[in-house]
Design brief:
The chain is mainly alpha-helical. The protein has helices at 3-18, 22-35, 42-54. The protein is built from three helices and no strands.
Length: 58
Amino acid sequence: MNDLKKEIIYELGGAYEKMGRTKEAIEEYKAIYMADSGYRDVSKKINDFYESQKNPTA
């Protein structure tokens, strides 16, 4: 996956987040993570998502 593709997918994930479609956003971030786990803050976004699933009241 080249840098342009990662950037486009990252922006798509951000758009999903803004629309409240968190699960779709995470799927996009996972695609980037599989190719480049150090890209921007995708690992943090994924970890935060799973933490929020464990503690929905937090």
